[in-house]
Amino acid sequence: PTYEGHVPLTSIERTALAVGSGVMAYFNPRRADLIALFGETTAQPFFINRLRNAMLKSPTGRRILRDRPRITSTSLSLPYLASLPTNTVGHTYYEWLEREKVSPDTRSAVRYIDDEECAYVMQRYRESHDFYHALTGLPTVREGEVALKCFEFANTGLPMTGLSVFNVFTLKAQERERFWGTYGPWAVRNGACSDDVINVYWEEEMETDVDELRTRLGIEKPPDLRDIRKQEREKRK
Amino acid sequence: MNSISISRSLRRLERLQRLHSTTLSQQYRCFSCSIRNQHETTKPPTSSSQSANYTHFGFETVAENLKQGKVAEVFSSVASSYDTMNDLMSLGIHRLWKDHFVRSLDPGINPILFSAPTSSPSTSSPAASSPSTPQGLNILDIAGGTGDVAFRMLDYASRIHNDSTTRVTVADINPEMLAAGRKRAASSPYSRANRLSFVEANAETLTTVPSSSVDLYTVAFGIRNFTNIPKALDEAYRVLKPGGVFACLEFSKVNNEAFNWAYKRWSFSAIPIIGQLVAGDRDSYQYLVESIERFPDQATFARMIQNAGFELPAKVGELGGGYEDLSGGIACIHKGVKPLEDTK
Fold first, then answer.
1. ipTM of the assembly?
2. How far is the C-alpha of B34 from the C-alpha of A56, rounded, in Å?
3. Taking a C-beta distance cutoff of 8 angstroms, is the pair B313, B284 a contact?
4. Domain encompassing residue B176
5. What's the mean per-residue pLDDT of chain B?
6. Distance (Å) from the C-alpha of residue A16 to the closest C-alpha of chain B?
7. Is residue B86 one of the residues assigned to a domain?
8. Phi and psi (nearest 5°) for B81?
9. Quick check: A37 and B276 CB within 8 A?
10. Per the structure, how many domains does chain A have?
11. Residue A16: which of B29, B31, B273 has the nearest Cβ?
């Protein structure tokens, strides 16, 4: 094994885990550990290497690979984030954590990627996922997650993100319409044209204004999904 | 040699040393390495010459006083999906093993014949007209957790022998497993009839069980997790009545080479994968298969039972050797009887 917790797999084992986790996660997307497993088993050899190379091509990406920062509840000071001005990345992330009632510790460790540096890239992607939610403003409901995964696929190219978009077939009819009509095209357009979000050094961007960061990366904010859903619920009453 | 090639060769040497040290010091759990571990003679400090401070936890080495806690963690985390995982790992065959185990023990009394008289015996034969209460067997199921064997024994006694007095006490060291068992017991008639109780106890020190009080002591797929197996066997000897039966169903060594190859592949590759997918916990299942690997083989364990004072059904090495292999040796039933006179 090349790092602590690494479990080398044979190709039969890897295929079995990939197929098993993919199918089970499709039917039960609440199992975050299966989604993570699906990501790890399908990323090698090409896609995770491509992502690592994308990091190497950017100066910030190179710094991240050298520093290897980790996002956990100990490395981020939540009271500090709460104290920041309202439209900063840090404060938006904090608000988003409160609203969705999640914590930065919910990400499992990477175990099935063989190259040590690529394992870190995967871990970084997994830990940054919450920041992508804050960056795009998409909520953690199934509809929001599917849209965000579509965006991530267009941006990072990891197979798990692309395959997760198949979960759109489990959405309700109105949600599906919204995806094909608004959020899907938004995701593809922005993910493909913007800068690599994996290269954002989140720890340094805490005090940056969110809109400024979006402009810098080339991402437009999609229509607020939470508001739309709330309005629909009101209408139905 | 100029300075560049010296530093390059130094770097190469350092890299080689680092690689060498990591491959030697870490024992990891992929399939081929598990096989290699079997054949390795150099083991971490668990030699018998040293003081018994260290023991095995699967392929890891841990301090003896820590093993109990680590086993507890494993079973707390597997408790909720224990029964499902058993079905998946053994492809349902564990049900056949447990059924055969209970059937071969034939638990239960004949309520007409075996009754204790309620009033003092009359001058004629004791089993005469005076009404009497049948006295069922007192069965102790150790590491019984979710109650698989306990329910089977009660069902067998009730249905085959029409015995409604035999009772089973399920003892387990892990509260989560007991909770799972109690939940199952709630939907059975036994807990209400006071024939089934669940207690938290350590098999190595059964303080709540008086000596010579148990008719039948069973332990199914639990004994390999004990820190000190001889101590547990001694406790079993103490609590059993003279003439009482000790029965153990446990994983053991497969005799056939080819079948063993397939079995090992299943154990070390498929089972951790199923654990990861179904229970979200690869490590606990890796521990389980490693603990099977570490358990002594049939003859050795039979001798351990003999050393505790039990009489075996046959001499070790003769006529099936005092144990019964199931599924080619994947599981094995060991039985022993506590002699009527204390020959220990």
1. 0.83
2. 37
3. no
4. 66-112+135-337
5. 81
6. 8
7. yes
8. -110, 15
9. yes
10. 1
11. B273
